[in-house]
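Listing S7. Sequence submitted for prediction.
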Amino acid sequence: MTSLTGLRVLDITTSVAGPFATLILGDLGADVIKVERPVSGDDTRRWGPPFWNGESPHFTALNRNKRSVTLDLKDESDASVFGSLVDTADVLIQNLRPGALARNGFGYAACAERNPLLIYCEMTGFGSGGTLSDLPAYDPLMQAFSGLMSMTGDEHGEPARIPVSILDQGTGMWAAIAVLDALRDRERTGVGTHLEVSLLNTALMWQPAQFGNYFADRTVPQRLGSGTIGIYPYAAFPTDDGWLVIAAGNQSLWLALCEVLARPDLAVDPRFIDNPARVAHRNELSDEIAAALAGRTTACWADALTHAGVPCSPIHSLDQVAEHEHVAAIEAFGAIEHPNIEDFRTVKLPMRNNGRYPQLRLPAPLLGEHQPRWLDSTDGFER
């Protein structure tokens, strides 16, 4: 899967959102040049423990298929080199604090004047145009600001952060999609463009049904633990030895669930007769299902429900997922030769083309690993 081979991406990003966007483009074949601060580099190089033979797993997970150079844009010589990189780039992606790159002479207007074909993508926390636009943002802050954190956690407990960088990585996905769209548009117009994505916009887009419900009747979602709005039973339930998520998302699945539970009375109970009724009485139904599941193991119930066609899944720990035979069968993890880490493995991009995942060509680079000896030449960075 090398559709972007020959495309040069200038990566002036750090942490998660930007590196995730450029990881996607790099996996699709683009030549990604990661520009880092001298000495310290990307912040994620120091995120840990754990460290993997001295390397941060955060950094190695997000920065494969890239080359690393170090430049201080406040230094005149380094800024000149950076300018030569801008001149030869197809795409520039940056997630520095709002205005930081422009103050160093490399805002969109200046870069577009140098290179009219350039697709310039800015990634911010709050987006542009509002009173908060100049503020920095991190994933947990935006989970809080956007309302996501008001819906996570137990009904009567504290708010809980979604424990992956869902807004950072989501914004990286939107940036990659926007770049692909802009590349097609450039084929038509012959000029580049200015793209903007933000963590806040991503957070709002992850909640279309929730905002739709609010706009419809001013319903404000509450914390539902493992459940969701508008459907029930669609949550985790305790078994004799663990937890089982059951997703009876329509009436036929609900009736099948009642049969497996040997509780035909639930199917005709007026409180649970249809989905709106079950949603309205979710607490009572939760107690009934939990009582029915008591006394048998998660595996036993999972087998019975799966045989009946009722979607369900045990709640696995990460080690169980890493060693699961099905995960191995779909070849979701891949190996790359790494100079410091023996048997290095990472998660592949979740797409296949004619049965093949995108190629894992390069491990995450060492800081400045690809610094050319002739970096101050006027020829630019070797392709």
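Caption to Listing S7: primary sequence and predicted structure tokens for the chain studied. The mean pLDDT is 94. The longest helix spans residues 166-189.
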